[in-house]
Amino acid sequence: MAPLPGAELVQKPLQLYRYLLRCCRQLPTKGIQQHYKHAIRQSFRVHSDEDNPERIQQIIKRAIEDADWIMNKLRMVPVEEATIQLLPSSRS
């Protein structure tokens, strides 16, 4: 299950960027929202020169899966714990 409706419509990098920023609005605290917005922007810049269509689709698929993982994790954890668990860069 995708974190927001419309994930299946994401085909282009700019659509992905907007979609992920919309996902950030569902995060519980401003600190977590800012952290992930910053990570999304950085990742978008890093991959902005990618021109291989297959690789672009891989990146889109992985980014949506990661967003889904984060949103599912949030549903299972109280806000105080989510702040601690979601900010580190590694997943458990």
TrEMBL record:
<dbReference type="InterPro" id="IPR008011">
    <property type="entry name" value="Complex1_LYR_dom"/>
</dbReference>
<dbReference type="Pfam" id="PF05347">
    <property type="entry name" value="Complex1_LYR"/>
</dbReference>
<protein>
    <recommendedName>
        <fullName>LYR motif-containing protein 9</fullName>
    </recommendedName>
</protein>
<feature type="domain" description="Complex 1 LYR protein">
    <location>
        <begin position="11"/>
        <end position="68"/>
    </location>
</feature>
<dbReference type="InterPro" id="IPR045291">
    <property type="entry name" value="Complex1_LYR_LYRM9"/>
</dbReference>
<comment type="similarity">
    <text>Belongs to the complex I LYR family. LYRM9 subfamily.</text>
</comment>
<dbReference type="InterPro" id="IPR052151">
    <property type="entry name" value="Complex_I_LYR"/>
</dbReference>
